[in-house]
Amino acid sequence: xxxxxxxxxxxxxxxxxxxxxxxxxxxxxxxxxxxxxxxxxxxxxxxxxxxxxxxxxxxxxxxxxxxxxxxxxxxxxxxxxxxxxxxxxxxxxxxxxxxxxxxxxxxxxxxxxxxxxxxxxxxxxxxxxxxxxxxxxxxxxxxxxxxxxxxxxxxxxxxxxxxxxxxxxxxxxxxxxxxxxxxxxxxxxxxxxxxxxxxxxxxxxxxxxxxxxxxxxxxxxxxxxxxxxxxxxxxxxxxxxxxxxxxxxxxxxxxxxxxxxxxxxxxxxxxxxxxxxxxxxxxxxxxxxxxxxxxxxxxxxxxxxxxxxxxxxxxxxxxxxxxxxxxxxxxxxxxxxxxxx
Amino acid sequence: xxxxxxxxxxxxxxxxxxxxxxxxxxxxxxxxxxxxxxxxxxxxxxxxxxxxxxxxxxxxxxxxxxxxxxxxxxxxxxxxxxxxxxxxxxxxxxxxxxxxxxxxxxxxxxxxxxxxxxxxxxxxxxxxxxxxxxxxxxxxxxxxxxxxxxxxxxxxxxxxxxxxxxxxxxxxxxxxxxxxxxxxxxxxxxxxxxxxxxxxxxxxxxxxxxxxxxxxxxxxxxxxxxxxxxxxxxxxxxxxxxxxxxxxxxxxxxxxxxxxxxxxxxxxxxxxxxxxxxxxxxxxxxxxxxxxxxxxxxxxxxxxxxxxxxxxxxxxxxxxxxxxxxxxxxxxxxxxxxxxxxxxxxxxxxxxxxxxxxxxxxxxxxxxxxxxxxxxxxxxxxxxxxxxxxxxxxxxxxxxxxxxxxxxxxxxxxxxxxxxxxxxxxxxxxxxxxxxxxxxxxxxxxxxxxxxxxxxxxxxxxxxxxx
Amino acid sequence: xxxxxxxxxxxxxxxxxxxxxxxxxxxxxxxxxxxxxxxxxxxxxxxxxxxxxxxxxxxxxxxxxxxxxxxxxxxxxxxxxxxxxxxxxxxxxxxxxxxxxxxxxxxxxxxxxxxxxxxxxxxxxxxxxxxxxxxxxxxxxxxxxxxxxxxxxxxxxxxxxxxxxxxxxxxxxxxxxxxxxxxxxxxxxxxxxxxxxxxxxxxxxxxxxxxxxxxxxxxxxxxxxxxxxxxxxxxxxxxxxxxxxxxxxxxxxxxxxxxxxxxxxxxxxxxxxxxxxxxxxxxxxxxxxxx
Lengths: 341, 467, 291
Prior knowledge:
heterotrimer, B: alpha/beta, six-stranded mixed beta sheet, 20 strands, globular, C: mainly alpha, 11 helices, 0% strand
């Protein structure tokens, strides 16, 4: 894909996003009897008004960036991983349970907790990967199902056999101080998770563009028949891509647990794994652009809270906009490829 | 009439007149604008300039059949013109209509058969019946015999001549000059979007038409050097299946330093043969390469590692990543051996030796012409020092110049000691290039001929399935 | 009637109740996919039908008008997906996911607008027991009708042609984009009845998350039913049975979360067992772009 082609389309996508944000946002605000000017002022004030709010915007950016990178990796391999939400939940649970259950030594605690998230999410991503590689089962349906199952399973575990916290509460016990991610900005919820996410995006960009593994993964996604005949094992690629994709989303869940909530709660994600699809698409499935897209959606997500409290506009407006963004931008890349065939 | 697609002037100021009762042949190289002209006449494509006038309905039989595999014959023939009874389709009337139609034109076919179960020759009847049901006064046939055996071609043209006698004006778009001479009354030659000649067929010859198509002499192929042949690939009772393509009990050898041509009509087991050698599908029976047995469930990667390289039939889907640039496409299949640092050198070597245009490693593969795409595929295969090359329809849909270059490079690879298995649906290509010829029909090998004693008629009969 | 037969009768009755919304959603999915559009947005359309019917029933006091409004809402939402899938030629799976997010958010937003409270609506005039029975029977009627439409009518043949090979359909003079558009929209109307059933027949209110992934189960039912209306109905009954079983087993002390997961697990297992043995319509999920 030539650079100019990508840039024109990226520009068009940004215009679509802006039109949807301000258009749908304004209509919704008018329905709620709020002047759009006041509503958007409250939104931007909520995202940037104070040091704490800026930090919160970056927290939301981080929480979206992890699953969006996971989604992008799978999409680049031609796999529709709609299951980032479930992978994030399972990763968060694994991290929270391990951190609360075992008093880990100081320097090991945070890495072990994050690793637990990676493994949990990786396993949850590997299941549809295996089902596809071994049985040819469509990953769209299986990941959708596994999202629902993830929430039910973790709810059962934390209230049942693995209960640590209060009876009846759908959460694990609290993480000891040693297992919590250190703050990046004091007295805010912003932790080193933000830095980890940015570094991960850069590494992923490098892997996709500069390694043979990335080359093979992109070939499998862009032209599976040609890739197969060029000696690339499609089943193995699908399994590895789904596992990595799930692991990245799981790491995201672990950073929410270790950085923000300091315990696992079954409601830890207000749909980050679904919004991540929009983030990945707006970022054109390029890890570096996804950083920018995450920031944009992070502003919306944290601003939504300010908009609700200051202007009494229900924050769901933002989810509505995000859903419509996904519909409008769905798979531009896929289509660009198809048109040329 | 004029039509431009992007930077390509596909049709450039063409006038063409079709007369009732006449079979008019339209010939030209790939990319000369024939199919575009036919599509404009059918009104499927709007010309940028010019107009189409006709008395009555225009019918078009597509080169790649516009049939829906999982619907039955009558559903395909009467789609969007279904006889109705109240709110529902009158299925009995539909069957009767198709039966009557096939009886009238002598095109026997079962109205209730599912199209995917039919052989290609019958599918073409269905395609023809669908157009005939519209009672066209003008019938356009786009490469109608591409998938037919020599015997089927004759009976197909009997039907076409019969239609012409009933007063239909007929345009046959083709590149097979033998058919032009045998069956048409008038011939128009196109090159680069323009009409370069128009003749009464009786007043011209195949040689003259060929020169007019190419715009000069047909390019010569590379000379054939003497080689020392040595055992390389041997099949004994090998059977395989790839999709609908089935190969049964194949036994033959390809030796280093020779080109073995597999002659046959499309859909007779060639895909299963190519895919089994490529490691894309498993096989039963025995296959040895360089004296070592090939395992039935080996992957394409291990075949590549042994020095077996396959040029797939469908370059756009099976060989290239169209959204990638030339450099990354040249590396495909050698990505591990080359490593990223050497991608650029490999691309420049292919561009230079195979005359890829534009000579730019950053050009998008999808933006190149078919001929230049094929040069990338053939180039990356032959520059990787293969021991065995399986070339499956290596010149399909590319212009004469590019085809000659591809064929010459295959001969040079043979001269240098590689074994080449050339699978082609074009008998002329096999006669021009192969040292030995095997004939395949209905999934089995039915004959073998040496370059020294070819029998064209006998090969044609074998291809049609007549033992 | 002894205790065992009573228990079996209860499970079978509950199976019908649990299967009905799945049948509607699966039939909507079948029609959409036979035309070549994969409809991941079934869940969102269920939400649209469920929420709108409650809102309009509350506003007008007439549950029948509410139900009709629910159908219209489902069609409008399906029309967005259909427009994106045909005219914009976007990826259908991703677009459907967006539809689900948008519908869930719009309903949550609507709860606050209409009832000034998050989570759930107030109780509204509902269709009642008679309405429930009518909708259950209608589901089976719809299955039979869709079977006839797809297999016996000119429009059905055109829909199937577009799902198999839109380019060939267009060469026969069919407008493949329009055919797909209307198949998805009418499929949306059928699917939204499942939502109406959930909120206005089985209950008398809308609450966040009440569709609980039924749209996804319906997608699985479409596959197990081999993309046929009758097959999908059978598969929906199968999943409905698992949902009904859940209630009986819960009384026996099995944890409810695991039981709730049963239909989803069954769907995954069946998916793995079925894959490779069923063929989707050849052009299912592939956007058609005119040359």
